[in-house]
Specification:
- With 338 residues, this protein is of the alpha/beta class.
- The chain has 2 domains: 3-11 and 234-332, D-serine dehydratase-like domain (Lyase, Ornithine Decarboxylase, Chain A, domain 1, Beta Barrel); 16-222, Alpha-Beta Barrel (TIM Barrel).
- Strands 1, 9, 10, 11, 12, 13, 14 and 15 form an 8-stranded mixed beta sheet that branches. A 7-stranded parallel beta sheet has the order 2-3-4-5-6-7-8.
- The protein is 27% helix and 22% strand.
- Helix 4 (87-95) crosses helix 5 and helix 6 (141-150) runs parallel beside helix 7.
- It is elongated.
- It has 9 helices and 15 strands.
- Bound molecules: pyridoxal-5'-phosphate (PLP).
- Pyridoxal-5'-phosphate (PLP) is lined by residues 37, 40, 59, 81, 161, 163, 166, 201-203, 217-220.
């Protein structure tokens, strides 16, 4: 099948671009220095490509992502970089501990107790480094680690996600703010102990020289989106949602890609050489830039999402294409759900 024959809306991945992104990141952070975050793509097929490039430890946002990777026999060391209290999901993780090393983030006595009750053996202390989200205050991290050890748990180290700094565009300012955040993480690590100091994302992947961070949790770099493209990093767009023009007049065209097939929290998607007017439930309305012919009804159009993570989570399968546009594989987006 050719990508122009796919039923739409369809997620299409350019295998060459994907492998280029994975190789560029592996050059900077080889092996275990990168713990790829699978939340960005939710596909064990892409995780297998990352494993083939040398990474066998993965970051996950949900128990389902970990259990799905274990089912797919990809990776051997999984970090749940997220707080989970649900006893059933934690027990399911605990049951899988003989198959792989599973480490669960905790940031409070409550998350510690939930992990302990479920039988989780390894934890990491999630430290707040400035993003108003999860993470314990740095000066309380040591006491939480002591409490976990008193329960017989292995404390593997610390993580701190500086998500508020991903889109800082001035590189000097970003470097200085990332360093301040990582100083907090290093202080917490001194009190916590353990081998792991985990942080980072696609927006800050090259900002850790001179810090104690020893693994980076980037995920979006593999497929990319229009927001991250603004940073001018060496990663290229590797994924699109392909739509079909289903209606048109002499001013605008309409494709069958809309809010139900695109993550929109980072703004409108883009269509090369066209301007996107707006997205509605099932549709995107757009018009050509000057000098570009208007697409005809039935023509396929490539839409670049503004936010990769929620876009991938809306689809069941990714069609993997070679440089001739031939579909060479179908990868289920099998890590969806919680
Ligand atoms: C805990 C955590 N680590 C790392 C990341 C980085 O991911 P990305 O590379 O997509 O920015 C995220 C993204 O939200 C995250 O929540």
């Amino acid at each position: 099948m050719h990508i122009y024959d796919l039923p739409t809306p369809a997620v299409v991945i350019d295998i060459t671009a994907l492998r280029k992104n994975i190789a560029s990141m592996a050059d900077v952070h080889p092996g275990r220095r990168l713990r790829p975050h699978v939340k960005a793509h939710k596909s064990s097929g892409i995780a297998a490509e990352q494993e083939a490039a040398g990474h066998s430890s993965f970051t996950c946002a949900t128990p389902r992502e970990i259990l799905g990777l274990i089912d797919a026999h990809v990776g051997n060391d999984f970090l749940l970089a997220n707080e989970v209290l649900d006893p059933h999901r934690l027990s399911a993780l605990a049951e899988a501990q003989d198959e792989a090393l599973i480490t669960v983030a905790i940031d409070s006595p409550e998350t510690l107790a939930a992990a302990h009750r479920a039988g989780i053996r390894s934890v990491i202390i999630d430290v707040n480094v400035g993003l108003p989200r999860c993470g314990i205050a740095p000066d309380k991290a040591g006491a939480l680690a002591d409490a976990a050890r008193a329960n017989g748990m292995d404390v593997r180290g610390v993580m701190g996600y500086e998500g508020h700094l991903m889109m800082v565009t001035d590189r000097d300012e970003k470097k200085s703010r990332v360093h301040d955040a990582m100083t907090l993480l290093a202080q917490a690590h001194q009190a916590v102990g353990g081998d792991i100091v985990s942080a980072g994302g696609t927006g800050t992947y090259d900002m850790f020289a001179g810090t104690t961070v020893n693994e980076v949790q980037a995920g979006s770099y593999a497929l990319m989106d229009t927001q991250y493209a603004e940073l001018g990093h060496p990663f290229v767009q590797a994924m699109w949602v392909v739509g079909t023009v289903v209606s048109k007049n002499d001013k605008w065209s309409v494709i069958d890609v809309g809010l139900k097939s695109l993550g929109m929290d980072h703004g409108n998607p883009t269509i090369k050489d066209h301007s996107v007017w707006f997205c509605s439930d099932e549709h995107t309305t757009f018009s050509p830039s000057e000098g570009t012919p208007q697409p005809i009804i039935g023509e396929r159009v490539f839409v670049t999402p503004s936010h990769i993570d929620p876009t991938m989570a809306m689809h069941e399968v990714a069609y993997v294409a070679n440089e001739y546009g031939e579909v060479i594989a179908q990868w289920p987006i099998d890590l969806r759900g919680w």
